[in-house]
Amino acid sequence: MQSLRLSVFRLEALIIAVALALLATAVASQILFDRNATLERGMARAESDSRLISEHASVVFQTADRILQGTMETIGNRPLDEVAASGEFREILRQFATDLVNSGSVSILDRNGRLVLTTSPAMRPGTNFADRDYFQALAGGAARYIGRVAVGRGGGTPIVIIGRSIGSGESFRGIVTVGMQAQFFRDFYSSVMAGPVSSVTLMGTDGTLLAHQSRSAHEMQSRAAPALPVDVNEVIDIRSSPVDGSERIAALRRVPRQPLLVSTSIATDAVLESWRRRSIALGGLGLLAIGLLAALTFVALRSAGRESVALQETRKLTDELAVALKRERVMRREHLHRTKNNLAMMIAMLQVESRRLHVDRDAFLGTANRISALALAQQSLDQATGGEIDCAEYLRNIAVVLADAEPHGRVRLALSLDPIMLPAERAQALGLITNELITNSIKHAFRDRPSGTVTLKLGATGTDVLFEYADDGPGFRGPGGADAKGLGLIRTLCGTLRGRHVASGLRGMRFYLAFPRNEPDEAQTAPIPETTSPPERTQGSATSRVASV
Q1: CA pair distance 243, 185, nearest whole angstrom
Q2: 537/438 Cα distance (integer angstroms)
Q3: I want to staple 251 with a disulfide (CB 3.0 to 4.6 A). Which of 5, 26, 50, 286 is the partner?
Q4: How far apart are CA 415 and CA 431, in angstroms?
Q5: Rounded to an integer, what distance in angstroms lies between the CA atom of residue 102 and that of residue 100?
Q6: Quick check: 168 and 143 in contact, CB under 8 A?
Q7: With contact defined as beta carbons under 8 Å apart, do 431 and 390 qualify?
Q8: How far separated are the first and last CA of the chain, in Å rounded?
């Protein structure tokens, strides 16, 4: 006993250790999974922002290029002073400037850097810009220039310059520039940024920083950034910012059709802040669950001894019930087998007596056929489970037995029977109805004919069973005659099934029956009305009648 109790204590300790390890692993896995999911959401936000800002930059710079091209085409080969003096050209230049949604300006400088014409009211013609980077680059042979932010000489406003040269080499005549206010970019970037620690950077493909906006520093920066490996269209990862050196979730994307890159970033610490709060809460819940699990495990194992005794008693009772159930099944099979044998003996005795006695032989044979139907029901019930009978197989057996019993082989069968399971009592009633109908057809419909066809159909719709019987005999007329007793039995059996039936004698016998699968509640079942006397078969032609319930 002591050895057994020691084994139980060791089992308790092992189960608690395994449960604690599994729970700790689950908590740690959930925290790690949540962290990765949080970082993925941050990357998706950075990627979405970079796409939006890249498309914005593409539209803005394409508009500026279109204005530069239009201005140069309007100038053509005319001298710049002549162009500047033209009132018509000044109007064209003002219309170009209105296409800039950022309050930008269009300017023309001659080959010496002197301002010839501008749409900016803050700049005066004649001012020299030969010392500016953009003029020196275009005068030195560059066809196009996009430079870092410059402070406007006319009003001190930060300006982003885009320029193109008019001619090149010996034919260089000056430049055309579009200046866009940095405030326009600042306002747009501020509306896009996700939080107080997000930032947006616009740079050239050579790594030159053109513009930078951060929530922590609301100024556009104009210093050069270190060169970056930017030989790809898009990169989304966690890296150190080239501007402030902090670790950030960054998305780097090329601006379509422009020598520019857009970088959007969100500080990793800010993204993971919500994850940290959730992790602390989850860790606390995990510790609480571990303590609760340990307590429940201890209590459960303490009661394991008592439950073991109860389990042994339950198993003993279960074994006894299984033996009793097996004995009951054997007795039930034996009872069904003896009942089937007794019915077979009764059928044989009736057949012998019908040949020996000078009485109505058809009445004897009709009774024998009814007993045969009950015997087939007993056989089907013996093979069934749950006290239900497959009516398709049951009715097929009855029809085949009665057709084979016809001495002249005049009966052909046309069967369309769906497999429907019914309780034994309801299946027996339907079998007796089928027996009476087929017997009636053999006795009357096919008496003076070389052959006849009996059609049986069985189906279901909703909770009702549908039964249809037909033969190709001559039909029937009014009540009375040799088969009135059999059809009276049919009406009685239909009543026990709580069914609705219709019998027709037009162009052969037609019988239709609909009844519920299961016995309905008497309190909810309307009483079945009285029916007229059952119709009788006729050997002649002509008349027919319909009797219905």
Answers
A1: 18
A2: 12
A3: 50
A4: 14
A5: 5
A6: yes
A7: no
A8: 78
pLDDT tops 70 at residue 492: yes
Residue 480 has pLDDT above 50, yes or no: no
What six digits make up the tokens of 309? 């005794």
The confidence score (pLDDT) of residue 338 equals 53
Token output for 521 = 């509640």
Q: Which residues contact 347 (CB under 8 A, 6 or more apart)?
A: 368, 371, 372, 375
C-alpha distances in Å from residue 285, one per residue of 15, 231, 279: 21, 48, 10
- pTM for the model: 0.46
| 175 close to 117: Cβ distance less than 8 angstroms | no
pLDDT (mean) for 474-490: 63
Give me the sign of the Cα torsion angle 167, 169, 173, 175: positive
User: Please, are residues 382 and 422 in contact by the beta-carbon 8 Å criterion?
Assistant: no
* Alpha-carbon span 185 to 50, nearest angstrom: 14
Higher pLDDT, residue 180 or 544: 180
- Given the structure tokens 């005549």, which residue do they identify? 173
Separation between Cα atoms, residue 12 and residue 447, nearest integer Å: 86
10 Å Cβ neighbour count for 211?
21
Residue % of the chain over a pLDDT of 90 = 10
Cα 14 from Cα 155, distance rounded (Å): 80
User: pLDDT (tens digit, 9 = 90+) per residue, 314-361?
Assistant: 778 888 887 777 776 666 565 555 565 555 656 665 555 555 555 555
Q: CA-CA distance, 546 to 354, in Å (whole number)?
A: 34
Cα–Cα distance between 431 and 424 in angstroms, integer?
Answer: 10
One-letter identity of residue 456: L
Q: What is the DSSP letter of 410?
A: -
For 29-69, the pLDDT digits (tens) are: 888 888 888 888 888 888 888 888 888 888 888 888 888 88
Give the range among 202-216, 240-254, 324-338, 386-400 with minimum mean pLDDT: 324-338
Measured distance CA(139)–CA(176) in Å, rounded: 11
Residues 6+ apart with CB under 8 A from 354: 361, 364, 365, 368
Residue 226: DSSP 8-state: P
Q: For residue 314, count CB atoms less than 10 angstroms from its CB and return exposed for 0-12, middle for 13-18, buried for 19 or more.
A: exposed
Both structure tokens of 415: 């069967």
386-390 CB contacts, 8 Å cutoff, 24+ apart:
387/423, 387/424, 388/421, 388/422, 388/423, 388/424, 388/427, 389/421, 389/422, 389/423, 389/424, 389/427, 390/419, 390/420, 390/421
Alpha-carbon gap, residue 159 to 155, rounded angstroms: 10
Neighbours of 447 (CB within 10 A): 13
Record the tokens describing residue 65, joined without a space.
Answer: 């290029």
Give the pLDDT confidence score for residue 187 in this predicted structure.
Answer: 80
Residue 383, pLDDT > 70, answer no
